[in-house]
Design brief:
single chain; alpha/beta; seven-stranded mixed β-sheet; five-stranded parallel β-sheet; 14 helices; globular
């Protein structure tokens, strides 16, 4: 352990470890403090292992559609333990990859729980309880967040789960209630339904995926209901009681009361920042609604202390955390040509079946902001590649400023849209208008052709519908 660092990062999630790498690239002597596995929640218990689970679910569902492709197979089944093991192995492989990156970039990894100790010091408590201090010129807080707990729905790890327990089931429950229809809730609903669980999603808002464009939410609801997922929106949640077989939950929808029964309940009602026990109050770092308050450069207001990622507030996305880490590292290093992050340009993805992806303003938000809009849409069922893939569910939607041609937002639902959305993200970052997008040549046959057609449709020039 060095006597003094230019930067110490507390937390090694996708924000923390990326910040450390960028700082090292810029010549800063850097250390990272981590109390658990390198890669943080995202890599070990979030983004990556959930996608491994969802991939298994996707393949399993495809196996039940083999006749559509002229194929046959017998005795199709699954091994829940093997599905989970694969997911954990994927996470382990990537955590080891982060370990390699730390070594490659000459970043000291210090195991333990980090805490602000005043005067440019970080106190680290090791697992054996011993405490040491590190001296540093700058500190980046990247302690992330955890699942929000609501009264009456406190997780016990057995019947009421958070995402952690939902990712490592010993078996697939026959019935499941998912509370919350954001990305996390919908992804777990999709995963468990694929393996045969009877799934009910309970959402207090008037529609599922409430942050998405309303048309996307409606299309998603239709698709999920077709798969047999029950959706209760505008719901008021009453008493939850554990039983010998699982749990019951009182729910009221539109004034009609109902008692739901299920073997397991997944609580997916948001997150809260990990602001406790890291010395924020003593250091004078401001906290609002469980998140550290920062300016556009990720500075906390206390000289030399920065905060990034979920700890610093929404949107709660790994790729947002990584870019904030880079921004903070470059600010510390004194880089000149850096720019604050425009959160409107950050894509959001939900890896359900069908997938959902978006960037920028929804149609409603654009109108609320005073824009006169032009809207384009193009369905999967009219795309040659989608038909060949057997994936004709969904559509692409674009929202333009009618006066300037600026692309204000893009919204998609369907196969592989999480891989397509960044095309629009790049376009918006480059301040591309409809004129440039219409000049872009999209390869054929691809799903990406729908992106071009959705632009053409907004201006009355669509070709294939």
């Amino acid at each position: 352990m060095a006597d003094k660092y230019d930067l110490v990062v507390i937390g090694s999630g996708p924000g923390g470890y990326v910040a450390a790498i960028r700082a090292s690239q810029l010549g800063l002597k850097t250390a990272i403090v981590e109390r658990d596995a390198l890669g943080g929640i995202c890599l070990n218990w979030g983004c990556i292992p959930t996608k491994a689970l969802l991939r298994s679910a996707e393949v399993y569902e495809t196996l039940h559609r083999l006749d559509e492709f002229g194929l046959k197979a017998e005795k199709i089944g699954y091994d829940a333990e093997a599905v989970v093991t694969r997911s954990r192995n994927v996470a382990g492989q990537l955590s080891n990859g982060v370990k390699f990156l730390m070594k490659k970039n000459k970043i000291d990894v210090i195991e333990g729980s980090g805490k602000l100790a005043g005067d440019g010091k970080v106190a680290v408590e090791a697992k054996d309880g011993k405490t040491s201090e590190i001296t540093t010129k700058n500190i980046i807080l990247a302690t992330g967040a955890r699942a929000r707990v609501i009264e009456g729905l406190e997780p016990d790890g057995e019947i009421i789960w958070t995402y952690r327990q939902a990712m490592v089931p010993k078996s697939i429950p026959k019935s499941l209630i998912v509370v919350g229809s954001g990305a996390i809730g919908i992804e777990f609903a999709s995963f468990y339904r694929a393996f045969g669980a009877e799934v009910t999603v309970v959402e207090v808002q008037d529609r599922i995926l409430p942050v998405e464009d309303e048309e996307i939410s409606k299309e998603a609801a239709k698709a999920f209901k077709k798969r047999g997922i029950r959706l209760l929106t505008g719901a008021k949640i009453g008493k939850t009681e554990k039983t010998g077989k699982g749990a019951t939950m009182r729910v009221s929808v539109g004034g009609k009361d109902e008692t739901l029964e299920a073997e397991k309940i997944i609580s997916a009602v948001g997150i809260v920042g990990n602001v406790e026990n890291i010395g924020l109050e003593k250091a004078g770092v401001k906290v609002e609604k469980t998140h550290v308050v920062v300016n556009e450069w990720m500075e906390t207001g206390v000289k030399g202390i920065y905060a990034i990622g979920d700890l610093a507030g929404p949107p709660w996305l790994a790729h947002k955390a990584s870019h904030e880490g880079i921004l903070a590292a470059e600010r510390i290093a004194g880089e000149k040509n850096i720019h604050p992050i425009n959160t409107r340009l950050i894509p959001g993805c939900t890896y359900s079946t069908p997938q959902i992806a978006s960037v920028g303003l929804t149609e409603a938000k654009a109108k609320e902001a005073g824009y006169e809009v032009k809207v384009g849409r193009f369905p999967f069922r009219a795309n040659g590649k989608a038909i060949a893939l057997g994936e004709t569910e969904g559509f692409v939607k674009t929202v333009f400023d009618a006066k300037t041609g600026e692309l204000l937002g893009a919204h998609m639902i369907g196969a592989e849209v999480t891989e397509l959305i960044q095309g629009y993200g790049v376009a918006m970052t480059l301040e591309t208008t409809e004129a440039e997008l219409m000049q872009a040549v999209f390869p054929h046959p691809t799903l990406s052709e729908m992106m071009g057609e959705a632009v053409l449709d907004a201006y009355g020039r669509v070709l294939h519908t």
